[in-house]
Write a structure and sequence with these properties.
55% helix; mainly alpha
Length: 263
């Protein structure tokens, strides 16, 4: 989310380093460990998934990452798919940015030869059910601690982020921001202008609801999460949320067809 420039509140750290040539492990281990610890002291908690420079798997030479990209793309594991998404969303913040650019170029070349694997990658948009039932009612949690609430990230934001990410990856788009990717896809004909506008409005609106709920929790000292309570929204906001989730479902249907997920 930091690489996509979509995170407003402090989050856990996700970072990596690319070396131009194989490093001397004995010399770099302590500085990289100290870097992760320093970020932690500054308010960026350690990554639960260990995506940090202190993890040797994310502090590798350029050639090793080239091998990793092929493995992540072709092995079909959930870990590989996640790593691929993390890498594609990455943005360079220091050092020689051409190292990252060339690796992304290599990824695009791999996909030109073996694009069929993107269907497995894109299928994650179907991982979580849409939190809308019949007739147009929200599906919320029944039991505490989130009774009466729904996870707006899983049910609404993630399908847009990952669906757009999958299409952008297929088109070799280097933009990392979700809205920027939507605009780039629209300019290339993947989306109509009207559907692109609907996607952007839906993404912005659900992001606002999520941020507002997170800020409210932070002011009360409660741990932030991705849950919102539809009953706490105004009638207008509930209508806009239903409309936004309908756009999400339209995107999922088009992705299911585009990537031939049934096959």
């Amino acid at each position: 989310s930091e690489g996509r420039a979509e995170q407003l509140l402090p989050t856990d750290q996700d970072n990596a380093v690319i070396f131009g040539s194989p490093p001397e492990r004995a010399r770099i281990e302590e500085p990289l460990r100290a870097f992760s610890q320093a970020l932690c002291k500054m308010g960026y908690p350690l990554c639960p998934g260990n995506v940090m420079v202190s993890n040797p798997a994310w502090a590798r030479e350029h050639a090793a990452y080239r091998r990793d990209l092929a493995r992540w793309l072709f092995d079909g594991t959930s870990e590989g798919q996640l790593n691929l998404a993390i890498f594609y969303d990455a943005a360079a913040v220091a050092g020689d940015a051409t190292l990252l650019d060339s690796l992304k170029g290599h990824l695009f070349e791999l996909l030109q030869r073996e694009g069929g694997h993107l269907g497995y990658f894109a299928k994650a948009v179907l991982q979580f059910p849409l939190p809308v039932g019949f007739p147009g009612r929200f599906v919320v949690e029944k039991a505490p601690p989130h009774a009466g609430q729904l996870d707006i990230k899983k049910g609404g934001l993630f399908p847009i982020v990952h669906g757009v990410r999958s299409l952008a990856l297929e088109r070799a788009i280097r933009e990392t921001n979700t809205i920027g990717r939507i605009q780039a896809l629209a300019s290339e004909g993947s989306f109509t202008d009207s559907f692109a506008a609907d996607l952007i409005e839906s993404f912005d609106f659900m992001s606002m609801l999520r941020l507002r709920a997170q800020l409210a929790r932070s002011q009360t000292g409660t741990a932030t999460d991705n849950y919102i309570a539809p009953a706490s929204l105004s009638k207008l906001e509930r209508g806009l949320l239903l409309a936004s989730l309908k756009v999400v479902e339209e995107l999922r249907k088009s992705l299911r067809y585009h990537f031939k997920m049934e096959l």
